[in-house]
Design a protein that fits this description.
By secondary structure, the protein is an alpha+beta fold. The chain has 11 helices and 12 strands. The longest helix has 57 residues.
């Protein structure tokens, strides 16, 4: 069952129960008030008849010591005649509750009569036939006689009014429920529209439309849910794209690795077969062996770099405090013999909290890349600057530079802008990938600024 139908059904059940219970108490309250008014009038009428009986008894000529039964019957008949047209019925009984006079049609019920010995006045509701009556009883003490006067007042109209009230209210309730059902259908549809939109968005995203977003049509809790869903969908889309990029990067990595492995292996196998199958002169023998050695060393270097990257991904660093001057002194010693380039070292004094050997690897790779990108006699600047956010390292060259569209790709493994020049300098496109992993361990990132033909600046902040 749809959620909107559940809301509609629950609303109708609650409304029907509320109207039914409320209507019952309302109609019954009106009935009780009418019945109470009728009881009051019946009791007043009983008191009036009692007074009239006593007055009539006193006006009878006294021939006997006590009021005779015949006189009682005569007074009862006069009282009945005096109430013609009012539907009045009465009954008179003697001390022994024996019948003296009764109107035609008076009920034979004696329950009220038997209780008049303890109560001077009493009443009850009786239903001897299709009609309802209020039966009253009172005790008359006159002329040494104790008599019992009972009356019956027809209140069938009150009960008929109650029945009619229930019928009218029931019909009115049905009309209200029908009208409310139609109204609640549209209300429930309006209330559940955000859910339908979310369902539609979910289905379309399941079908692969990750950029689809649910329409937010309100500012209430459902609107907030839609906003949160769209935010979640955005994060999910980013994660999916990242996963797709990662899968694509892995495929590119495997393809590049296979290519990088195939090229030197082909040469190694070819020269090894040449040495095995032919007798070469000393110079060709040396060249072949040297080529095999060179390509083997390149394969070894590539393998070690790959191993470094894999290990770094699983590495947990143990940082230590180190003076920045120590790192720059290490770089000066490493490139002191490179006289074909002009190296400039400038640094502010300071201490950083790092894994020393890993940061040395980063700096060596950045300087080595700058060296490969520069022409003979160019300057390479290695800078260190103390800032409020941390300590900034930068390696700047004035070489070939990097196109803007390549800057985001050069940190990928095996990615080389100029493959022929990189291989000629024994490069495999793994240095910057290793730097990125090491800096990630230090909660830092590699920043690249480059202009083709003017040079590049690689920097990171600790």
């Amino acid at each position: 069952m749809k959620f909107s139908y559940k809301i509609l059904l629950c609303s109708m059940i609650i409304m029907a129960a509320a109207l039914g219970i409320g209507g019952y108490f309302f109609v019954n309250d009106v009935f009780e008030a009418s019945l109470e008014r009728e009881v009051g009038q019946a009791m007043d009428e009983s008191s009036i008849l009692k007074f009239a009986f006593e007055t009539a008894a006193l006006n009878i000529p006294s021939k006997y010591d006590m009021l005779q039964n015949s006189a009682i019957e005569e007074i009862g008949s006069n009282l009945e005649k005096g109430g013609q047209g009012t539907g009045r019925l009465l009954r008179l009984s003697d001390e022994d509750r024996e019948l003296l006079y009764a109107s035609e049609g008076f009920a034979e019920d004696t329950l009220l009569l038997s209780s008049l010995g303890e109560q001077i006045r009493a009443y009850q509701i009786i239903h001897p036939d299709e009609h309802y009556y209020i039966q009253t009883g009172t005790v008359i003490n006159t002329l040494d006689r104790i008599l019992y006067l009972e009356t019956m007042r027809d209140v069938t109209a009150v009960y008929a009014e109650r029945t009619r009230g229930f019928t009218v209210y029931r019909n009115l309730t049905l009309l209200i429920l029908i009208f409310s059902s139609v109204l609640m259908y549209f209300i429930s549809s309006w209330l559940t529209k955000p859910i339908r939109l979310l369902t539609q968005a979910t289905m379309r995203m399941t079908a692969g439309e990750y950029s689809y977003r649910a329409e937010q049509i309100s500012r209430d809790e459902m609107g907030q849910l839609t906003h949160d869903f769209n935010h979640m969908a955005g994060v999910l889309e980013e994660n999916i794209h990242e996963l797709e990029d990662e899968v694509r990067a892995r495929e590119d990595f495997i393809a590049a690795f296979s290519h990088e492995l195939k090229t030197p292996l082909t040469a190694v196998i070819g020269y090894a077969d040449l040495l095995r199958s032919r007798k070469l002169d000393e110079e060709k023998h040396f060249l072949s062996a040297n080529y095999i050695y060179t390509e083997g060393k390149r394969l070894e270097a590539m393998s070690l770099r790959l191993l470094d990257i894999i290990v770094t991904k699983r590495y947990e660093i143990e940082p230590q405090d180190v003076e920045v001057e120590v790192l720059f002194e290490y770089l000066r010693d490493m490139y002191a013999e490179k006289e074909d380039m002009h190296f400039v070292f400038q640094c502010d004094p300071g201490r950083i909290h790092v894994e020393v050997n890993l940061i040395k690897t980063v700096l060596l790779n950045l300087v080595d890349n700058a060296y490969k990108a520069s022409k003979q006699g160019d300057s390479i600047e290695i800078l260190g600057k103390s800032e409020e956010q941390g300590y900034l390292f930068a390696v700047k060259d004035y070489g070939v530079g990097i196109p803007p569209e390549e800057c985001k790709k050069i940190t990928e493994a095996f990615y080389m802008i100029d493959k022929s020049r990189s291989r000629s300098r024994n490069g495999a496109g793994l240095g910057l990938a290793l730097c990125t992993e090491i800096l990630a361990l230090h909660k830092s990132t590699l920043m690249i600024e480059s202009t083709p033909g003017e040079g590049s600046c690689f920097s990171f902040r600790i």
